[in-house]
Amino acid sequence: MDQTTKPRPAAVGRERDQIFAEPDRPREDFNFGGETAAVFDDMLERSVPFYPEIQRMVSELAVDFAADGSAIYDFGCSTCTTFLELAKGLPDDLSVRFVGIDSSREMLEVAKEKLAHESFRYPVELRCEDLERGAVVEDCSVALLVLTLQFVRPLRREALIRRIYEGMRDDGCLIIVEKVLGESSTFNRLFINHYYEMKKRNGYSDLEIAQKREALENVLVPYRLEENRDLLKSQGFRHVDVFWKWYNFCGILAMK
Known about the structure:
By secondary structure, this protein is an alpha/beta fold.
């Protein structure tokens, strides 16, 4: 091997997700600790439909709104995959800083390793904070909530969106990717069934799907698409649109 070539660490978030593969696994709520952090990138790629395309679309839209001298925030940044993808499309002469906020120290440790390995060239601040307790948002042109808002307790979501809005520059944007409920019980059942079929195609067993569903039952609380739209409008966002949807997943773009 050429000594100038940096080998990618095999254990930096790239282990295969087998967390729910054991039949005798104790039943407990899903969490974002060390066990999850070690396999999180694989989990997302196999569990979220069109995940690479979502990352591409989120990054393209973020670049469209990123303003010189401003900050790009990722709330629930996990392992900072989005920062790495987004940075590829930024103009060379654009000066921005990145702020990643996550409640899991283990996720942030993986993020630090990934950013260092990729020689991330922008100023970046990683903060371990609970979004439900408040987060300082300043001079933000782009805010990201990628598969994050659904884990915030419903009673706390309005305050979080309001903090983001108040810390955002005029004409800034908020990009949300969420699981959503169908508009009817029939749609909801069909969408979820097809989602589980996708997970099976990606190598998850019926046992893994069932055990993860139980673990997420009290942790992930999805809204209907219209409820998310109303939430954003109620906190001041002028324009709200859907940029992507697949069964029970959607991407929403909101502009201040």
